[in-house]
């Protein structure tokens, strides 16, 4: 099951449980253009969100100096910050 399919399934479950309207946008938040993609999607679909939930984040494992790459850590920082 794709990430987008999992996200949509969780949204459907939460919408039914809490009687709210939920829209999802699956995008890689580590990419610099992610915020623009989210904004453009909302504009295109004429969504005016009351609440935005960004439940993204990840951590790294392994020896910082020996087992992790700079790209891995920069992606983690971009998402978590």
Element pattern in H and E? HHH
Q: Can you give the mean pLDDT? A: 88
Number of helices: 3
Quantity of strands, as a count: 0
Uncertain spans, ≥5 residues at pLDDT below 50? Answer: none
- CA(first)-CA(last) distance: 28 Å
Q: How many domains would you count in the coordinates?
A: 1
Structural class comes to mainly alpha
Which descriptor suits the 3D outline?
elongated
Helicity level: 40-55%
Main sheet properties? none
Q: Nearest-angstrom radius of gyration?
A: 16 Å
Strand percentage lies at under 5%
Protein name: SDR family NAD(P)-dependent oxidoreductase
What does this structure look like?
- The protein is an all-alpha fold and 81 residues long.
- It has one domain (3-80).
- 47% of the residues lie in helices and 0% in strands.
- The protein contains three helices and no strands.
- It is elongated and about 50 Å long.
- The two termini are 28 Å apart.
- The relative contact order is 0.12.
- InterPro entries: NAD(P)-bd_dom_sf (IPR036291).
- This is SDR family NAD(P)-dependent oxidoreductase.
């Amino acid at each position: 099951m794709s990430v987008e399919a999992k996200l949509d399934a969780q949204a459907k479950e939460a919408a039914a449980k809490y009687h709210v309207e939920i829209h999802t946008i699956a995008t890689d938040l580590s990419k610099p253009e992610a915020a623009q993609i989210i904004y453009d999607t909302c504009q295109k679909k004429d969504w005016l969100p009351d609440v935005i939930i960004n439940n993204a984040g990840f951590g790294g494992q392994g020896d910082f100096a020996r087992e992790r790459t700079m790209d891995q850590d920069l992606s983690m920082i971009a998402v978590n910050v």
